[in-house]
Fold this sequence. Notes:
This protein has 476 residues and is an alpha/beta fold. It folds into three domains: 8-49 and 96-153 and 274-356, FAD/NAD(P)-binding domain (3-Layer(bba) Sandwich), CATH 3.50.50; 163-271, FAD/NAD(P)-binding domain (3-Layer(bba) Sandwich), CATH 3.50.50; 369-474, Enolase-like, domain 1 (2-Layer Sandwich). It has helices at residues 20-31, 46-51, 53-70, 85-95, 102-110, 170-175, 190-201, 220-232, 322-341, 356-359, 378-383, 399-404, 437-446, 450-453, 466-474, and strands at 8-16, 36-40, 114-117, 119-122, 127-131, 137-148, 152-154, 182-186, 205-210, 236-239, 243-249, 251-256, 261-264, 266-269, 273-275, 309-311, 362-365, 370-375, 388-394, 411-417, 422-430. Helix 3 (53-70) crosses helix 7. The radius of gyration is 24 Å and the shape is globular. The structure holds flavin-adenine dinucleotide (FAD) and nicotinamide-adenine-dinucleotide (NAD). Nicotinamide-adenine-dinucleotide (NAD) is lined by residues 157, 186-192, 194, 211-212, 216, 242, 270-273, 320-321, 363-366.
Amino acid sequence: MSAERGTEQVVDVVVVGAGPVGENVADRAARTGLSVVVVEKELVGGECSYWACMPSKALLRPGQALAAARRLPGAAEAVTGPLDAERVLARRTYFTSDWDDASQVQWLESAGLTLVRGIARLAGPRRVEVAGSDGTTTVLTARQAVVLATGSVPVLPDVPGLAGSRPWTSRDATSAKAVPGRLAVLGGGVVAVELAQAWARLGSTVTLLARSGLLGGQEEFAGELVEAALRADGVDVRRGVSPARVTRDGAVRVELSDGSVVEADEFLVATGRRPATSGIGLETVGLEDGGALSVDDTGLVEGVDGSWLYAAGDVSGRPKLTHQGKYGGRVVGDVIAARAAGPVQTPPWSRFTATADHRAVPQVVFTDPEVAQVGLTAAQAREAGLDVKVVDYEIGDVAGASLVADGYTGRARMVVDEDRRVVVGVTFVGQDVAELLHSATVAVVGEVPVDRLWHAVPSYPTISEVWLRLLETYGL
Ligand SMILES: Cc1cc2nc3c(=O)[nH]c(=O)nc-3n(C[C@H](O)[C@H](O)[C@H](O)COP(=O)(O)OP(=O)(O)OC[C@H]3O[C@@H](n4cnc5c(N)ncnc54)[C@H](O)[C@@H]3O)c2cc1C
Ligand SMILES: NC(=O)c1ccc[n+]([C@@H]2O[C@H](COP(=O)([O-])OP(=O)(O)OC[C@H]3O[C@@H](n4cnc5c(N)ncnc54)[C@H](O)[C@@H]3O)[C@@H](O)[C@H]2O)c1
């Protein structure tokens, strides 16, 4: 359904932003019969579908398959050349539907949602104005709720010359139509390491500039193992440096804090993202334009009277991950529908409460080796005041892993809260560990005592047997 432009309409719920999170909010709210309008200024599907999760993983996957084959005698001999970059890029483009959102619009309509295309901004309580590209303004008034799901935008550091040097953001790095000869990457976070490896394996000469260790916030060994892998892929990893000045005259010239210079054809800046809260009319409801939002566990924005403004996903200040944002989106959609019918109880771990955001957030970094982590790291658990026991195990010593790859390199860490004898955090680093992560998420969310986990017997010979080894090393 498309809404008629340039009109004033009253609906139950207005969702601003049709990324993965906005889609989920809208779908859940509409299931109960509420009328829901979704406003989108670019592509239905958001960042994740077109410039983030999907294209970046499509760029990485063929390199992983090739590297996996090279680790297996018999298969390695059948690998006779490098990646076919053109075909990898073509498959990436297939996954973005060539940046066309027709199929996602079709889904939205099939879910009974109404799409309004244009730029939305709040115009006072419960009111949203949408500026269409045809110059019309559609005014929407929400009986129940307005939900902000506007996502996030990249942060460009204030480095002399950087803004004028046509730097790449993750959008350019996931949608590029050709492999740059030389690529410099600034940052040591997830975007930087994933895209540095993707482009290195596609043939770029990559220099990674990180001001500290890689993957800060994860267990330290995760960043170390990923750094070693990047170096093995030929990436020139320079730690402890920052750009002092950037110029572009054809090539980009990055002058570094240590006096050295890096020249490249493209310069990807991957120094984090901030919630997209600018220009969306927050000041019309008593909040600060561009300021950070704070939401309670039901997604209600704090500091706004009347319990009608919600936020979910990247914009909300909660973890900037598609799956976690969608979880928050389901909570918001459900709680809006439930509150429309009457008062709602929202204790922790209820359907209407995003409790997992605080202590059970899973994330996979899709490098080779993969980093799969959930819950608290050892340092975070100690900071939280827990009596912690940390157990490490080399995944390569597990029979299943040794079958997956010759010379399998990887490590697992289990963090146990000794007072309750429950697992509060797990990290796996290694080939093919991404699919292992959900077992850890279930253990952490379920607060399964280690003595009961002992009875969750992993199949032989799978990499999952690392669970048995971790529990044995723990002392069972
Ligand atoms: C390179 C990269 C790779 C990533 N890979 C992963 C991954 O593998 N796994 C993972 O879990 N996460 C990944 N992420 C994070 C993930 O992309 C985000 O967490 C996710 O997209 C957030 O969803 P969202 O719906 O909150 O926001 P978005 O996907 O950003 O969607 C927001 C939507 O709101 C629209 N919008 C904004 N303002 C307005 C307005 N005023 N009016 C109308 N519409 C508006 C935007 O156009 C957009 O479509 C990655 C991020 C990047 C940058
Ligand atoms: N696989 C995944 O789940 C995945 C993949 C990509 C992105 N994401 C999400 O997208 C978000 C953005 O990712 P990101 O990597 O851009 O951000 P990030 O916050 O993870 O990392 C930012 C990096 O930039 C560095 N940095 C920040 N300011 C700097 C400066 N002025 N100079 C030099 N270095 C600087 C930081 O030290 C850090 O290493 C993250 O929240 C991430 O979770 C997830």
